[in-house]
Amino acid sequence: MRTPAPSSSSSSYTSRDEDAEKSEKPEAPVPNLRLRIAYGALRYEISVSSIVTFGEVKKLLTEQTGLQAGEQRLVFRGKERENGEYVDMCGVKDRSKIVLIQDPASIERRFLEMRRNAKIQGARRAISDVSTEVDKLAEQVSAIEKSVSNGVKVPELQITTLIEMLMRQAIKLESIQAEGDASVQKNLQGKRVQKCVETLDVLKISNARTKPVVLTTKWETFEPPPSTTTQWELFD
Q1: pTM exceeds 0.90 for this model
Q2: 48-78 residue pLDDT tens
Q3: 3-state secondary structure of 9
Q4: Residue pair 58/83 in contact by the 8 Å Cβ criterion
């Protein structure tokens, strides 16, 4: 007696059940890897997923090393790895050692940036010193201006000396190489010096027209006291 062949409908149900069973099976978790990073004399250990790229590893190392991803080179098994390469595809295992090297071009860029920042800071300090001196000289200009406006003649040497001191500060400003906001401060102090010198030039003319005040003292005279004669008594 022949066994009847299964119908097509029953076979389709069987395949659907198998697909459902497969879909219900939980996916295996992606294992984590502990990577040992050698950066010169420094050693780091980070935990990453086994399916990350070397570019993602660089981003994780940025916080620990202070190097931006573009400044890093990662070497594994004697070969520099590209950002898009996956660590597991390159044979990286748990506790594998990866060598981190700073990009030589980034070292030069960082050195130039540090030198530029030091130059900017030096310019700011120099401009600040000039500003302090100009503040003192501006106070003297105000004092002279007040005296001349009150009709008090000021020694011409005092005015010319003050102009020379201001011009020295102007020369200092010219010798300062500044950029950015430091350049703005340099121009501001230069205008202050120019204004003070122009004010003194005007005061110099006004002061020359001012006549010196002559003070006379009237002495009070006293009449001499009347002369008195003393009579001496003679004794025998």
Answers
A1: no
A2: 999 999 999 999 999 999 999 999 999 999 9
A3: helix
A4: yes
